[in-house]
Amino acid sequence: MMLQENLQKWLTDEKARDQFVIRAGTDTEVLWNDARQSKTELVYKRSYWTESFVQWSPLGTYLATVHRQGAAVWGGANTFNRLMRYAHPQVKLIDFSPGEKFLVTYSSHEPSNPHDANRVVINIFDVRTGKVMRDFKGSADEFTIGGAGGVAGVSWPVFRWGGGKEDKYFAKLGKNMISVYETETFSLIDKKSLKVENVVDFSWSPTDPILALFVPELGGGNQPARVSLVQIPSKVELRQKNLFSVSDCKMYWQSNGEYLAVKADRYTKTKKSTYTGFELFRIKERDIPIEVLELDNKNDKIIAFAWEPKGHRFAVIHGDNPRPDISFYSMKSSHNLGRVSKLTTLKGKQANALFWSPGGRFIVLAGLKGFNGQLEFFNVDELETMATAEHFMATDIEWDPTGRYVATAVTSVHEMENGFNIWSFHGKLLYRILKDHFFQFLWRPRPPSFLSAEKEEEILKYLKKYSKKYDAEDQDVSMLLSEQDREKRRMLKEEWEKWISEWRRASEEEKLERQRLRDGEASDEEEEYEAKEVEVEEILDFSEEVLFEE
């Protein structure tokens, strides 16, 4: 059993700072982001802490490490102690349930017969006790349905968790079925899988036990594609939408489970090309109404889509590289709450990825890979750019859990400029740290706030009253930094004057010796000299040449 200490003590930091973990070379470090002081502060450092990667649990309680013998979780009030081990030889991948109750581990083993598929082992552990609650073993072919990803073609995570933070259900895609398990007995609901002919993908609501599943077109278009919403554990279908001439489909849930966007790529009448549209489901409304959205130019290629966390807006990057457009939409137009409306389109942006702040309102429009790390910090409330910047060759962008700071990183996929930058939410570069062989940067997640939505609104309403205290603290920090800066300059000046003084003393001590060496001449004074011009002839070369021969 785990030690009974306060594993959430880091949340009570007096400066309200956030932590992050980095891996560089053989070292793994957990650090405070001390943005006010424009620096980091070390919490814990360890060499060879993990053999491949580290991973925070979803609520930030534990840090998981991966080893040849299995996985381990670490935490503590003031440091990082090993709290539990999970034996699983040659473990390759791990995944926590959203409420941190369970840990899923995965390994793949080569068969003795090279013609056979790899053998897969998956264990589900109770995080606190370390007990194996259920294991799954079989051929890799049984775990590869639903597209490639992860390791050796396995779509990871194999088991997807549903029902929000309660960790009540988990499900796996199979051939013509979805197997849904409950965590009281770790057995199939109703002791049987949900039969869905030709199902190729499914996705849980982030907050409710609702499955969205996709079945592609069959019989050359005679049977249309469809998206269904299924309630768990009853397995009752809540809503279904048939989609005609669809070539592909992708589902995007909004973080509160209020909306589901289905991106459908459709064939044109000639079937020689495709265009994209969106089916927007309003999950919390009566009968789950669906709205169809097509872009102004429906032939535009969709490069990226992202919902505003906890909000009603979404952003879409569309068009052709190198300068696509970015459009913002709202599910609540001012004159009609039940209709989607376009807020604005930003033309010709060097962006191919969208990173919303966890609190909504602000977004980073990023140009990664071929765009060399272009960054635009955009305020969606005001529909205005706050700052543009660049982190050359940036590979990763991650907001801190409070939405106050953004980290951009260049990992070891590039040989040069490895390290990370920390920015304010409005795009001011606060500090930069270079690290050779830089592998990982991960903010420590925070659990959800205990405050009600009403209380949060009240705090926002009286923010100026609360902020006076923090303005005073900021001023104190600013004055401290100024004082530290002045002290640093004073010390440098003292050091310089001390150095000059020591050289003068040494020069004075050697004066008599210099005079003796110069036959009694005192030549220290620069004014006491006589300039003479001396001409020196020097033969540089000599050659003899015969001009006439008799």
Radius of gyration: 33 Å
The biggest sheet amounts to: 5 strands, antiparallel
Per the principal axes of the C-alpha atoms, what is the gross shape? elongated
How far apart are the first and last residues' alpha carbons, in Å? Answer: 116 Å
Range of helix content: 10-25%
Helix segment tally: 3
| Number of E strands | 37
Strand content: 35-45%
How would you classify the helix and strand content by structural class?
A: mainly beta
Ranges where pLDDT stays below 50 over 5 or more residues in a row are 147-152
Give the mean pLDDT.
Answer: 89
Biased composition (Basic and acidic residues): 507-521
Protein name: Eukaryotic translation initiation factor 3 subunit B
Subunit structure: Component of the eukaryotic translation initiation factor 3 (eIF-3) complex.
Keywords: Cytoplasm, Initiation factor, Protein biosynthesis, RNA-binding
Note down, in words, how this protein is organized.
- With 550 residues, the protein is mainly beta.
- It has a domain at 50-194.
- The chain has three helices and 37 strands.
- The chain has helices spanning 453-461, 463-509, 511-517, and strands at residues 19-24, 27-34, 39-47, 54-56, 63-67, 70-75, 81-87, 93-96, 102-109, 119-126, 132-139, 160-162, 169-174, 177-182, 187-188, 194-195, 201-204, 210-215, 225-231, 237-243, 246-253, 259-267, 274-282, 290-294, 302-307, 313-318, 325-330, 341-346, 353-356, 362-367, 374-379, 384-390, 396-399, 405-410, 419-424, 429-434, 438-443.
- The strands form nine sheets. Strands 12, 13, 14, 15 and 16 form a five-stranded antiparallel beta sheet that branches. A four-stranded antiparallel beta sheet has the order 3-2-1-37, with no helix packed on it.
- A hairpin with a 5-residue loop joins strand 25 (302-307) and strand 26.
- The longest helix has 47 residues, at 463-509.
